[in-house]
Amino acid sequence: MIFDLFIFLIISLSGHFLSEPFAIQNQFVVWNIGQGQWTTQSTLDSCLHIDSGGEFFPITKIKKLCHAKKNFIFISHWDLDHINGIEKIKRWPQVCLYNKVDKTLLSARKLKILSGLKECHSKDLLQIFKNKQSSLNSAIQLIYHPTNEPHPFYYSNSNSKKSSGKSSNELSNVYVSNQFLIPGDSTSPQEIIWSQKLDKIKIKALVLGHHGSRTSTSETLLQHLPNLQWAVASARWARYKHPHPAVVSRLQRRKIPLLLTEDWGSLHWIQ
Questions:
Q1: In this structure, what are the phi and psi dihedrals at residue 88, rounded to the nearest 5 degrees?
Q2: How many angstroms separate the CA atoms of 46 and 207, rounded?
Q3: What phi and psi, each to the nearest 5 degrees, are found at residue 28?
Q4: What is the per-residue burial (b if ≥16 Cβ within 10 Å, else e) of 115-152?
C-alpha cells in the first residue's frame, strides 16, 4: 500500500519525490527530526529554514544541501522542538535569524541556542533574487503573525498585554513557501483567523499544525484548502501518538494522502 501511495503521489503532483536528491537545488524538504519541525526551501544559492528543531537531526544531509549557501532561519514560535537544531548550523559561514529576539522573554537555555546568530533582513533575501524573476514573497510569505509588532517578522511569546493568556502555540507565526503551508503549532481558534487569507493562495501541501495534534488542522482550515493534494506529519506516533486519529480521519474524508516522516524519512519535493 505504501508503494501504491508513493506512485500515486508521483503521478498526481507536479513535482517528484526522491530519496536523497541533493544535486537538485530547487526543492522543499520536510526533514525527519522525530517530533518537532524543520523544513527547508532550497534554491541555487540559499536555504530558507522554517523552524529548525526536533529530537534528532540528519545534519550530514542538511549540511550537504545547505552548508555552502546563504541560510535564513524563520521561526514559527520559540518552543524547543522548533529551535534546538539551530545549534547545529549557527556556526556555518552564512547563517542569520529573521526573527527578532527579546532577551527578557526567553529562557537561558533558549538564549544559549540563539546566541551568536546575527539578524537578517528583507533586503538580504531580495538580494538573492535580484537577477531572477522572483521576489521575497515568491520564496516565503508570512501570512499571519499574531503579535502584530512593527517588524514584519517579529515574534514574541511574552506575557505582554498583546499576548497575555495565550500559549506559545497560539502565538505561532504561519508561513507559506511557494505552495506549502507551514503553520507551526497554530491552534484551531487561530486557524479560523488566518485561514481566510488562504483563499487567494493555491496551497497544494500542508505540514500538519502541531505535528498532527487534534487541536490543529481543523475542519475550518481544510475548507479553505480546496487544492490540497497531500499532507505531512512531522511527528512520532510511537511515542507521542501524533498525528491524532481525529486529524487522520479529517484528511481521509477528503481523500488527502498523509505522509509521516516517521515512516518515510525526510521528504524532498523537487520543484
A1: -75, -20
A2: 21
A3: -120, 135
A4: eebeebeeebbeebbeeeeeebeebbebbbbbbeeeee
Which cell numbers hold the place of 161?
498585554
**Cell of residue 253, nine digits:** 474524508
Global pTM reads 0.84
* pLDDT at site 107: 93
Contacts of 93 (CB under 8 A, 6+ apart): 67
Of the candidates 203, 204, 166, 202, the one whose C-alpha atom is nearest the C-alpha of residue 185 is: 166
The domain limits of the chain are: 21-157+166-270
> Which of the residue ranges 6-15, 98-107, 201-210 would you say has the lowest mean pLDDT?
6-15
How far apart CA 65 and CA 31 sit, in angstroms, is 12
Cross-strand partners of 262: none
DSSP H/E element including 50: strand 46-52
Domain topology for 21-157+166-270: Metallo-beta-lactamase; Chain A (3.60.15)
